[in-house]
What we know:
The complex is a heterodimer of chains A (657) and B (257).
Chain A lengths: L13 H11 L4 E7 L2 E6 H17 L7 E5 L4 H12 L3 E5 L5 H11 L1 E6 L2 H9 L9 E4 L13 E3 H12 L2 H13 L5 E6 L9 E5 H14 L7 E3 L7 H14 L2 E4 L6 H8 L3 E3 L2 H16 L3 H22 L6 H22 L6 E4 L6 H9 L4 E7 L4 E5 L18 E4 L4 E5 L6 E2 L3 H7 L6 E9 L5 E6 L4 E2 L5 E2 L1 H9 L4 E7 L6 E7 L1 H10 L7 H5 L2 H19 L9 E6 L19 H7 L1 H8 L4 E9 L5 E12 L8 H4 L1
Helix pairs in contact in A: 1-2, 1-3, 2-3, 2-6, 8-9, 12-13, 12-14
Chain B lengths: L4 E12 L2 E12 L3 E5 L6 H8 L7 E6 L2 E3 L4 H6 L2 E4 L11 H7 L9 H6 L2 H21 L14 H14 L4 E5 L7 H16 L4 E5 L3 H7 L2 E6 L2 E6 L1 H5 L2 H8 L4
Parallel strand pairs in B: 3-8, 3-9, 6-7, 7-8
Antiparallel strand pairs in B: 1-2, 1-4, 4-5, 9-10
Helix pairs in contact in B: 3-6, 5-6
Amino acid sequence: MxxxxxxxxxxxxxxKLLRSHAAERGQRPAFRHKDFGIWQTxxxxxxxxxxxxxxxxxxxxxxxxxxxxxxxxxxxxRLYWSMTAAQMIGAVPVPVYADSVADEIAAVLxxxxxxVIVAQDQEQVDKILSVRDxxxxxxxxxxxxxxxxxxxxDPSLHALEAIMAKGRSALSDARVAAxxxxxxxxxxxxxxxxxxxxxxxxxxxxxxxxxxxxxxAAARDTVAYDKLTDRDEALAYLPLAWVGDHYLNYAQGFxxxxxxxxxxxxxTAATDLREIGPTYHFAPxxxxxxxxxxxxxxxxxxxxxxxxxxxxxxxxxxRWGEKIANGERIPWSARxxxxxxxxxxxxxxxxxxxxxxxxxxYTAGEAIGADLFAFYRSIGLNLKQLYGxxxxxLFVTAQTDQAxxxxxxxxxxxxxxxRIAPDxxxxxxxxxxxxxxxxxxxxxxxxxxxxxxxxTGDAGFFExxxxxxxxxxxxxxxxxxxxxxxxxxxxxxxxxxxADIREAVAIGDGRDFVTAMINIELASxxxxxxxxxxxxxxxxxxAANPQxxxxxxxxxxxxxRSLSEEPVMAGAQIRRFLILPKELDADDGELTRTQKVxxxxxxxxxxxLVEGLYNGASEASIAAEITFEDGRxxxxxxxxxxxxxAPFPRAKEACAA
Amino acid sequence: MSGDILLxxxxxxxxxGGVRAIAxxxxxxxxxxxxxxxxxxxxxxxxxxxVVNGFYRPxxxxxxYRGRTRARMKPHEAAEQGIARTFQNVALFKGMxxxxxxxxxxxxxxxxxxFWQALRHGPALDEEIEHRRVCEEIxxxxxxxxxxxxxxGALPYGLQKRVELGRAxxxxxxxxxxxxxxxxxxxxxxxxxxRFIVEANRLRGAxxxxxxxxxxxxMDLSDRVVVLEYGRKIADGVPDVVKSDQKVIDxxxxxxx
Lengths: 657, 257
């Protein structure tokens, strides 16, 4: 095992990378998983051995080069190894979102022509079996956790454990082992390495094909950029099927050789984060936001002295923290105060959040509030923004450690060639650029310009300091009937920066004025209700409460004020709004699996509400079909009050003109 | 499924002063089955469980468990004999964590002296590790990893019920008495709990006696059902037979005169 192969050791596939890690740092930890309350650890040498067993097992099931293998489930070591095992034999792994409903899984499995699926547990197996008749090409189902599956007698269903045992015993024959080694050597970097299905924000999801050499090249650049080494450690809690997980954990982990820790379950991720104390971390803004909301709620429940201490030192952090992080010169007294704050507040706070050891943290996916961003930066967390896409294999831009700000996403990442098209669309060429969409050459041609740049579909511009600023999806930027520019996401983000607002949908393209539909945040509004003795039985009841309405009205007013201060946006102030009687949910198709709002779908579904917003009514009713977690459907009937807002006068019209 | 008789109750009567809680009831529980006890409020179901695990002493009648007929048995003796139970109103140590509560279920199996346990050293440590492993398996089984270190007083009711089941399972009981395990739960929680009960029965081999009001659950889960009304047994048999028994229908819906 792991004999040096001079000349052929190009490491242009993940299987070859794994083999060389097993040889070079065989005893270093590669994967961890918390099981039965204890962190189990596998070294690189062990992972190589386990992966070979899976690979040989897959071969024994008749899998071959070019087949596709779906992987469905949470972040489990064996699911990651199954992906590497597939790559080892020249098959292509297709990770599937674990919380997809059966129809969505059927669509991905059907389109990717998967021959085998490795499923985490009974939940996934049940979903797949329910759509089995639609998947003629699916030959075998493997499962990792046998619980609840003992009574199933489907002949195509196998325990992954059993398949691995089979593979292991076959590999005890030296000729079989040599044959598998030869297969690893045969793999070339230009082969497809993985197919990642896009989240489908803009319609049906597409299978993005990435090659091994490009994936690895992109990961090498960013590993060097952020100086990641095999001493780093990351918690893999993001969906397997998302490019972020495949890049930040899988690809970068395999390139740098750092350890990937898998949480015990999705519910324990916060505790597991504390226990592992990762050095490299990614979280979408909503996670940082949820953490801060929870923290603030707990601070309010703390004793008077602690509250005072917290307020006192957070003020110090707010004033000096970011300056220190950006390496500016500050007075020694401020440095002293900050040092004391670090001892008393910031360090314990970071420890409670599991952020003590973090060297580099990224956030991306949506706009992040300036206050939110500043909070984490000021307590000494090296939080940066990146902008990326599945088609780029994530990184398009990334901020450097010294130039971090909340309203832009940074300069082009290493090796990325970035330009803004005349119509404002951002376009790029990058080392990790995708090969094409699986089985959709026409869509591939649509996505790439004649001179080889990938169209992102995002509208943006460069700031004077060279950082990219994204405004909205290029196709979502519309105009009011009077010609005023209307960027819905820009307005929605401003609304969402209030802790009380979870989601917002702005409407206005082709209309006379801008309106908004709002989802309240149950955690913070619920906490407010508790403190103020407002009783409620459901989201719907709380959302209709007049006091809640008054609170949201204040927020909308503040957004209007800030819009009025921007010459370009002043005409797009919110004139009317309502609070939705239902939480937007991915199961109902209202959000994508990555929790982005699907504006068009929502506009159709809540058409009666939208009509109410524009016909002057004081309230509007809706009867919508909702899907419960077990897949059954029900009906939701609700009425929302509509509130009129007075717009602010255009603040700096004179200077803008 | 239905093997030897594990427990039999013969002509048991129990009264509190002038109130007759149980009047001359006989039934049996076979090894490996799920036995439901149903009936309207005040029918004597909980009293019956209390008689079985020795909390109440019947004035009349005999109870035979594992072939041994006994006049009286204290609850801790019942526990030593492998009878575990959960309660209608959750009875956990509110200030203790989920893990600690489940660990208390192991206390009867801890053999080392309090001296060694206090030192947490040597053989006591080995023993604790072994007990912790069993508890962790139960935590995994009941999918409550995320509340392992949470004080149970802070948990929602549905999860407390799950922890209570966990503590009972930690005793590795031969006979598990469940008093309304699904009361006050929503549909999803009920489905989860049903699954845990089925698995505890099939995979962990516990014989189960179950009091439950949700008829759908009772008919799905149980092998045999005994029906009580005003302390008397009015029906006994497989769910389908009991369901169509006129006396049972009358007891639940009121007799049509």
